[in-house]
Amino acid sequence: MVIQQIIHRNLERLFGVSVPDNLVQIQKTKKEFKGHLTLVVFPLLKISKKKPEETAAEIGAFLLKNEPSIAAFNAIQGFLNLTNAPEYWIELLNEIAQNTAYGTRAADENAPLVMIEYSSPNTNKPLHLGHIRNNLLGFSISEILKATGNKVVKTNIVNDRGIHICKSMLAWKRWGKGATPESTGKKGDHLIGNYYVKFDQEYKKELAQLMAGGLDEKEAAEKSPLMLEAREMLRQWEAGDKEVRALWETMNSWVYAGFDITYKALGVDFDKIYYESQTYLEGKDTVLEGLKKGVFYKKDDGSVWADLTADGLDEKLLLRADGTSVYMTQDIGTAKLRFDDQKKLHQPINKMVYVVGNEQDYHFKVLSLLLDKLGFEFGKGLVHFSYGMVELPEGKMKSREGTVVDADDLIEEMVRTAKETSEELGKLDGYSEAEASEVARIVGLGALKYFILKVDPRKNMTFNPKESIDFNGNTGPFVQYTYARIQSVLRKANGHCGLDAQSPPNISEKEEGLIQILSEFPATVQEAADNFSPAVIANYVYDLAKEYNQFYHDFPILKEENAAVRDFRLVLSKNVGEIIKTGFRLLGIDVPDRM
Predict the structure, then answer these.
(1) What digits encode the pLDDT tens for the residues 211-242?
(2) Which of 83, 146, 299, 338 is the most exposed place for a label (fewest CB within 10 A)?
(3) Kind and range of the H or E element at 412?
(4) What is the DSSP letter of 30?
(5) DSSP code per residue over 238-265
(6) Lowest mean pLDDT among 392-396, 414-418, 504-508
(7) Sign, CA torsion 108/113/114/120
(8) 10 Å Cβ neighbour count for 475?
(9) Distances (CA, A) of 317 to 163, 276, 299, 500
(10) What is the per-residue pLDDT for 497?
(11) Predicted local distance difference test score (pLDDT) of residue 357
(12) Which of 336, 205, 360 is nearest to 281 (CA)?
């Protein structure tokens, strides 16, 4: 029985009344005080009818007399610090050891369904560092919510239409000379991304020439032949021109194949993928229906708008004068399709979570409001998981100028650096080339993922590849090496590590502290889910690994002569390893058995 339940039960025995759960507030005892856990007494004063100091002393004396798991207490004002008996820690460790799914719980048939959208790439360029943070956050949040009893559908919306797509298509048509991924040896998304950059380069040349001829920048942009041709291509696409559509399908297929390789390397996946080319018409129809009902209004030029001034926002364009849709229109259509699709499967969405950067905060405020005005029940309940931007030490990235940090290049660099660093430290000695490459892959990707996920997702961050691959400090490789060290100890024990730990002659404070950290894992997973924050789990696992390494250096395990102590430490080590592995799994990070 967990300590919260033990204390709750005894409080009801002491006071002779039912005690509401919210009044039993327990936290870890601060380091400057003696004890393991602290009961906050103030909420209980309405039941005790006594002063804080008297109430704390009364509860402490009752627990000490009636509960074998409590060895000592000290009362300081309205706080009761409790010290657990050694037997409590043994029992708790064995409970943890016997629960193969400790800290997680599976969804039952009545569990809420959460749909999580992440990635959202454009088909005119490859994935970059910003996409990496997005994908890692989206995938990890999905795994964490699944681990807390939710049904989860991971979804992606691909931005596969619009003027930016036509720019890369036009550039390939003009300067590609029939180039394909096969003929160039390039991934399809990289090939198409190069032509998006090429368009921007040629467009800037045109602007410079036009401005040199006397036009100002706005006039030059309006009269640029290249931009006019791109706009005409978009018009042809929307009109269903067979030649334009065929080129679009071919080039997109190259990009999708490239995306799939990157997703596989990152270890992320999706249950359902939507495409803007399939959702924007649904959005247009929904907006026009809203126009009929008076939810929106039309201006003299034919454009359709939503007036949100009464809601403290502004007026929002939904359909241009030429009838073409904007991003907001597409998102309305996508949301409607998703909820309709899930209803058909008899699995209605309880919550929709959009993993999108904080530069889109306003967009999602408007989307939520518009969906609600259109009468969709899910409108107000949508969640915009707004995360901060990620940069390299060198600064910001710009797609059109070709200065982005390419995801594939970064993954390759991380794996290569991990292998070089591991070889220098002798951590790959005795490995075959295949084994060394696999460990390097696990360590390199672990370093990348952990460095990004350990940061509060709502904050901007700088990703430093060199700092991330370090076998000391708050890094993925440090935690992975701790796990591998534990597995080495268990292998050397020759299978003598059972599930149960018998009571050793004594338990050190360090060992008690480790068990206490293990006991906090379920609450940590729930906290991460409640706050959509993988960082909560990342930093918990680091603290656990750090504490274990101190224990490993200070206390013998295999060389311990007392069999009961040795077996206890083996069981403790095994469960530290299991929780490291589970915690990292929720972050999408693998751990190596050897290192």
Answers:
(1) 999 999 999 998 999 999 999 999 999 899 99
(2) 299
(3) helix 407-424
(4) P
(5) HTT-HHHHHHHHHHHHHHHHHHHHHHHH
(6) 392-396
(7) positive
(8) 21
(9) 17, 18, 10, 65
(10) 65
(11) 95
(12) 336
